[in-house]
Write a structure and sequence with these properties.
This protein is an alpha/beta fold. It has five domains: 98 residues, Orthogonal Bundle (DNA polymerase, domain 1); 62 residues, Orthogonal Bundle (DNA polymerase, domain 1), CATH 1.10.150; 89 residues, Beta Polymerase, domain 2 (2-Layer Sandwich); 79 residues, Beta Polymerase, domain 3, CATH 3.30.210; 236 residues, Metal-dependent hydrolases (TIM Barrel, Alpha-Beta Barrel). The strands form four sheets. A seven-stranded parallel sheet has the order 11-12-13-14-15-16-17. It has a five-stranded mixed sheet with strand order 2-4-7-6-5, with helices on both faces. The chain has a three-stranded antiparallel sheet with strand order 8-9-10. Strand 12, helix 18 and strand 13 form a beta-alpha-beta unit. Helix 1 packs antiparallel against helix 4.
Length: 590
């Protein structure tokens, strides 16, 4: 009885892994502001990273057996107690007490690119900065120009960072939105009145950040459907409740709209509510030119008398066909040439998840990953992949326990012995090698030539001016052993806008030197993004979709790279890890 009661309580108030991880990260930020022990700060950051990569929710682990929390890497007695407090009470008193030591909105400024604890403390002491609004006003008035260690350049960068921060406020990353939508749909599907449930909106189109969530359903009893929806345990507030549409605000932040649609026009509703707005405008223009009217209720033939006759709407395919087009995949519906291509039968045969044969960028516990090579290999095999690559960090990334040449080659030898014992999967041994400021690589060619795959990456000096940054990367891509350019823009969607480079020059160099451009799904990268993918393809470049996984759970992020590739109009032939192992090895040999 006690376990059942605990389970019910946890369902109502527990935090998700993402929320727990975010709180530990914030505690580390505050401890750094307070100049506390570096090892204590590091413990919180390590715990946050490890928790974010877990496949199971900590509340589920706790409910099964609290002692299982001891198995999480980096979680000692103190942090375990804090996790238990969060999953059983929905809050952490220690975190709350720390935040009370600073003005509201002050600590959040650490989310701004280019603003660390030292600068933030200086701004508070000398300019009385308390929040983002204060900082923006100070920058606009030029008050940072005379501050030691800052100046006009810092001020300019902070204004750009604030603009980026404002643009992302109130939006979720794609994986987070997808998870929340799946949880809502899982809850709805337990009520038998729901006959069909589908995601719509920008989530269905696979945009990298999402505002509100749109869900469409067919239900035998609309009133019962709405009662069930508004009773969802995560609902913080009911914004509106009607017979066919209801809107709620969830405890995690987003609003969710649920619409009950008649089965006879469900396809038309899916087209309309998937969007984008611009895509829908183009569809309506096309329909009008053909004597039709299009809405969420269907395609209607407009007679001379003004009367309308239902012509299509049950399926999306039916809607597009009636207007003289092939069905357009949701990811392409951005009014960027897809209608013209669909009318001519010229849409690309987009790459799909089923085409992916392996993951070529991941880290293990030998550097900054959470799982051993054996554990990562077992997880990859479960995904039915044909191959994988372990690509540890090179020595320059000290915070990630990066490897020097001697250690890397010894690690490679160990991995190859492991690979020799495996069946049904091939293991490639590689490295994620740093591109240093002048374009030289962090490891000598004598080491790189011994590896199966070399991934080059920028991990520092993001603020170099455009020409120098571009030349830096181009020189690295001229190295004969470089196969992949990792996360080319270096951006983090909510925190870092990315480096300034001449992408066209980089894309042309990639095509010329047979260097594959990475679509990296780790954390908040989604880099390259869809726009750059499409441009790079136009210039002859090819790609690899990688998770850059630092844990078993990270391997599940592959789907978001595939979605991004689809938004970039990429086909199977454009993506390295859709190739057979023999073709892949041939491509890597250059």
């Amino acid at each position: 009885m006690k376990n059942i009661l605990n389970y019910i309580i946890i369902l109502k108030i527990s935090m998700t892994n993402k929320e727990i991880s975010a709180i530990f990260e914030r505690i580390a930020d505050v401890l750094e502001l307070k100049e506390e022990n570096i090892f204590r700060i590091r413990a919180y950051r390590t715990a946050a990273q490890n928790i974010s990569g877990l496949a199971r929710q900590l509340s589920d682990v706790y409910n099964e057996d609290p002692s299982l929390l001891d198995n999480i890497p980096g979680i000692g007695k103190d942090l375990k107690e804090k996790i238990i407090e969060m999953v059983t009470t929905g809050k952490l008193r220690y975190h709350g007490d720390l935040m009370k030591e600073f003005p509201k909105g002050f600590v959040e400024m650490l989310d701004l690119e280019g603003l660390g604890p030292k600068k933030l403390k200086k701004l508070k002491k000398e300019l009385k900065i308390r929040n983002v609004d204060d900082l923006q006003k100070a920058c606009e008035k030029g008050r940072l120009e005379d501050l030691e260690g800052m100046g006009a350049k810092t001020q300019e960068k902070l204004l750009a960072s604030i603009k980026h921060y404002r643009r992302r406020e109130g939006r979720m990353l794609l994986p987070e939105a997808d998870r929340i939508a799946d949880e809502v749909i899982d809850y709805l599907s337990k009520e038998k009145t729901f006959k069909r449930i589908e995601k719509a909106g920008s989530l269905r189109r696979g945009k990298e950040t999402i505002g509100d969530l749109d869900i469409l359903t067919v239900a035998s009893d609309a009133e019962k459907a709405m009662d069930h929806f508004t009773s969802y345990r995560e609902v913080a507030a009911i914004i509106a409740k009607g017979s066919t549409k209801s809107s709620v605000s969830l405890a995690e932040g987003p609003n969710v709209d649920l619409r009950v649609i008649d089965a006879s026009c469900f396809g038309a509703a899916m087209v309309y509510f998937t969007g984008s707005k611009e895509h829908n405008v183009e569809i309506r223009k096309l329909a009008k030119s053909k004597g039709y009217k299009v809405s969420e209720y269907g395609v209607f033939k407009v007679a001379g008398s003004g009367k309308e006759k239902f012509a299509a709407g049950k399926t999306e395919e039916e809607v597009y066909k009636k207007l003289g087009m092939d069905w357009i995949p949701p990811e392409l519906r951005e009014s960027s040439g897809e209608l013209e291509a669909a009318k001519k039968g010229g849409l690309p045969d987009l790459v799909g998840s089923k085409d992916i044969k392996g993951d070529l960028h991941m880290h293990t516990s030998a550097t900054d990953g959470q799982n051993s090579p054996e554990e990562m290999m077992a997880a990859v095999k479960k995904k039915k992949y044909r191959y994988m690559a372990v690509t540890e960090h090179s020595q320059h990334v000290r915070v990630a326990n990066g490897m020097d040449g001697k250690r890397l080659l010894k690690h490679a030898e160990k991995l190859r012995k492991l690979a020799g014992k495996q069946k049904k999967i091939e293991l490639l041994v590689g490295v994620e090698v740093d591109i240093l400021e002048e374009g030289k690589l962090d490891l000598p060619d004598s080491v790189l030539r011994e590896l199966d795959i070399v991934i080059a990456a920028v991990h520092g000096r993001f603020s170099l001016e455009k020409k120098k940054q571009t030349e830096r990367i181009l020189r690295a891509m001229d190295n004969e052993y470089v196969n992949v350019l990792a996360h080319p823009s270096g951006r983090l969607i909510t925190r870092r806008s990315g480096i300034e480079v001449d992408f066209d020059r980089i894309f042309r160099k990639a095509a010329e030197n047979n260097v594959f451009l990475e679509i990296n799904t780790h954390g908040e990268r989604i880099d390259l993004n869809d726009v750059n993918c499409r441009r790079a393809k136009e210039l002859g470049a090819r790609f690899v979709i990688s998770t850059d996984a630092h844990s078993i759970g990270g391997l599940d992020q592959m789907i978001y790279g595939v979605v991004t590739a689809r938004r970039g109009w990429l086909e199977k032939k454009d993506v390295l890890n859709t190739y057979t192992i023999s073709k892949l090895r041939k491509e890597l040999k250059k």
